[in-house]
Design brief:
There is one protein chain. This protein is an alpha+beta fold. Helices cover 32% and strands 14% of the residues. It contains eight helices and nine strands. The strands form three sheets. The protein has a four-stranded antiparallel beta sheet with strand order 6-7-8-9, with no helix packed on it. Helix 2 (41-58) crosses helix 4 (114-127). The longest helix is centred in the first third of the chain and has 18 residues, at 41-58. The protein is elongated and about 65 Å long.
Amino acid sequence: GLDVWLDQYPYTASNTTIATMIPDDLLEQGVEKARTQIKNPEEFEKAVKAMVRHHAGSLARKSLSYVVIASSAAFPEYNGKNIVQIAQVRKQKETGRAELLNDAAATPAPEVSMEEQCRAVLTLFKGGNASCVFHTMDDTEVENIMRSPLVAVASDAGVRAFGEGVPHPRGYGTNTRVLGRYAREKKLFSMEEAVRRMTSMPAHTFNMSDRGMVKAGYVADLTIFDPETVIDKATFEKPHQYPEGISDVIVNGVPVLRNGKMTGKLPGKPVLGPGVVK
């Protein structure tokens, strides 16, 4: 008796906190409790052993290089590096050879064990919240999910501060990636179907009766784009890039982007769902 809907962002990596890498039994009393607990050296060593058992044993992982740090307040120098690279930097510093990994003239980076990688994860976790990008999917999976007519488009991204950290590119390119790559180039569905998945479909899902369509009496939220040129530019390596092919954006009937330039107007308002208590 319930409607079931899905949403998806069109990328082969997810984005969440580093706490998801910590074994569940270490988080039984919450993230902050675990973070405080491993500040004790003995508890830290226990946690290292538990993490190695979890990742190398239970999950049979050979490497944690699939995890890239998007932002870490405690260790901003690690932003954009994966866990193996971070473990290598830490090992170089410990041995007194702290060459930069991207220095072509530097000595090749040392090999690091799963234990050293887990130590790097726990050190980041102990220092505070860190956002990570997890490269765990492939294009075939993304496309198979996207083909379903039940799947809407959603970025699942927070507000981005331009140039800050190395965040997931979904915050800049989700919608234009679907329009340009998956509708126009790969032809998984029509351009009109792509637009439906970003407008009337989510509006219907969340029971928003005055949004999602160009119709008299509806809120005038409009995006004007060129279907021949619209495309995402943000990448995992360089995420702070705006898309191309969008000329105008109108929010609540007020232009906020006109001919590719911001107008300075801020007409946006909170969108309240049908469950709000008035």
